[in-house]
Design brief:
The chain is an alpha+beta fold. It is built from 6 helices and 10 strands.
Length: 233
């Protein structure tokens, strides 16, 4: 087999930034690294791209290994390729971010890598350039969520408006006026009000809503007016 001459070989890896929402705050899933260097330290879930598979398929495989999931929202973020990012061997990492509902999938997590959910404001020091990956992924999530209702991927099938507001506040690190937020969300006509209520926390309770899947797919600009200064993101 003919090869390119005088070229240095390098490894290709993928790392997955897995975001989850527990009903109150946005969190990220971290694991203990299973190999040297930095064995046992906090890390994103990742691995090497195997012969015969694309980076996308590698990311899907790695995500399934940790969470047992298939078909979740997964998007390529950026390629990290600084020459000294891995002290063992020249390795380029293609980062992806995934969005899952914590409560739906927590029982499926593999114990092999001792996974743990961390709030975004309490992330420990991670190996290599993984903290930079998380920072970039959150910025990308903020940008995408301002343009279309991407954050519904983090919610259960039924949710309340307070839950939805908590999610947006957690993603953007700010607070929204309750009445104004509800008015803008309902004006998108993407939500279908349910007959039952969530009773926890108050006697009055809060009505559940479901996402109108057809309108969700057809209207990716609907949430632009919810995020202040979205055009500046």
């Amino acid at each position: 087999m003919t090869q390119y001459q005088n070229q240095t070989r390098m490894l290709a890896a993928v790392d997955c930034i897995i975001f989850g929402f527990d009903g109150e705050s946005l969190k990220i899933l971290l694991v203990h690294r299973g190999i040297e260097p930095e064995k046992g330290k906090w890390s994103l879930m990742g691995g090497f791209v195997q012969p015969g598979e694309s980076p996308d398929h590698a990311a899907i495989r790695i995500l399934k290994t940790l969470t047992g999931l298939e078909g979740v929202y997964l998007e390529q973020l950026y390629t990290f390729g600084e020459p000294e990012r891995d002290p063992i061997e020249r390795t380029m990492s293609i980062a992806y971010f995934a969005l899952i509902d914590i409560h739906r999938y927590e029982k499926q997590l593999s114990d092999e890598y001792q996974p743990e959910w961390f709030p975004l404001n309490k992330i420990p020091r991670l190996i290599f350039d993984h903290n930079e990956m998380v920072k970039m992924a959150r910025a990308k999530l903020q940008y995408k969520a301002a343009l279309h209702p991407l954050l519904f991927e983090l919610l259960p099938k039924k949710f309340t408006l307070p839950q939805l507001q908590s999610l947006y506040e957690s993603v953007y690190g700010t607070s929204f006026d309750k009445r104004n937020f509800s008015r803008k969300v309902l004006s998108t006509n993407l939500l279908v009000k349910q007959e039952d209520k969530y009773k926890g926390g108050s006697k009055k309770g809060a009505y559940y809503y479901k996402l109108n899947a057809k309108k969700y797919k057809a209207n990716f600009q609907a949430f632009l007016n919810i995020i202040p200064n979205a055009h500046l993101l």
